[in-house]
Amino acid sequence: MNKITCAFISVLQHSNKSYGSATLLGRQLSYKSDLSLDKIYPNARLKLYTPPPPPGSGDKFNGYIPMDKLEISYSRSSGPGGQHVNTSNTKVDVRFKLSEAHWIPEKTREKLLKALANKLNKEGYYFIKSDLTRSQQMNLADALEKLRTLIRAQELDEPTAPSEETVEKLRRRQEKAARERLQQKRSRSQTKQDRQA
Prior knowledge:
197 residues; mainly alpha; 3 strands; 47% helix; extended; Large ribosomal subunit protein mL62; EC 3.1.1.29; Pep_chain_release_fac_I; Mito_Release_Factor_mL62
């Protein structure tokens, strides 16, 4: 017996001759791959779920980005990929209003507003685009990772001036490199002179 016959028999055994059994029969007899998500993960919820933010200090970004605060749109991607590119919306555009992003700590948000002043549109929205792969979910993950990297870069402390010891080490290294370079030049010059003599 093939899969369709087994499904048909199981539906007939469990049906009670009600009106809804025709719909159930149609669903059972429609083809589903063995690799479909509901067969691989039978008990999983296939809806997108945004978990609550993890507890953490209020002055540092913890990596949590609430999906309901972002405006996500999908469009056709460019580049190679054949017919698949022309038929699927894999490019991801993530936008959010930076001044109203309360999930970013206040100090970091102020730094971002200064750093991204020329990249915000008139309404104050910041755009992140990703068409790195041919997968919509992978591009969304890439865009969110770009956003996390951008936020964490603003949280880094300001670079401090190097200490006197570090400056002295760098000066010695440069002098040593210059001496070695001159020695190599002299050696090469001597080799050329010996060839001409």
